Amino acid sequence: MSFSRIYEQAVLQKGGENEVHTRLPRVAKPGELEALGDDRYLSEITRCVFKAGFVWRVIENKWPKFEEAFEGFVPLYWQQVPPEVIEQLAGDERIVRNAQKIQTVPENARMIVDAAREHGSFGKFLANWPSSDQAGLLLWLKRNGARLGGNSAQYFLRRVGWDGFILSRDVVAALHREELLDASPTSKKGLMQAQEAFNIWHQESGLPYSHLSRILSFTVD
């Protein structure tokens, strides 16, 4: 389970330490998560929801129009948006017209508003949740949000800079190879198994969880 062995394998696969380091994801600096507005969290959640099972490039290219159609993703507005607005969006050519995914916006807005009322902002809520319990956060997002199961919540957290792992196909393959995962990666048991592995590697290496996850993925052909 030594992460130093995994790191050496990643360096070998990618052709050197520099190649590994230049591909590591950015982790938010202290204060950045708290400084980000709740509207940006709703925007990023929605972006990841729409990307799930769809061509990512299409969503990225259309995203300025999404921002326009959803009027900046202000959670206080979208948590109680009139039903006719949702109906109109289902026919709006500026966005991908998936009615079920459009409906997640008010549901996730309510989740953000509720957390912000309790913690001061959604950013503070995320900043105070430890990476050593990412499994708990993912289960919370799945329980309180809409369409935030699978990897959608993991990609959302990565996009905003929260320090956590992503159970991508390569990461799951590597965890299987190391005999650290024998349950579905979307199940509570699978999440807890992955969490235990990353917690041990974090304690050993001192590296951010996001970096551990990406380096592990480099060891898979």
TrEMBL record:
A GO MF label:
DNA-3-methyladenine glycosylase activity
The Gene Ontology biological process annotation of the record reads: base-excision repair
Read off the Gene3D superfamilies from this record.
Hypothetical protein, domain 2 (1.10.340.30)
Give a Pfam family name: Adenine_glyco
Q: What is this protein called?
A: 3-methyladenine DNA glycosylase
Q: What is the organism field in this record?
A: Marinobacter maroccanus
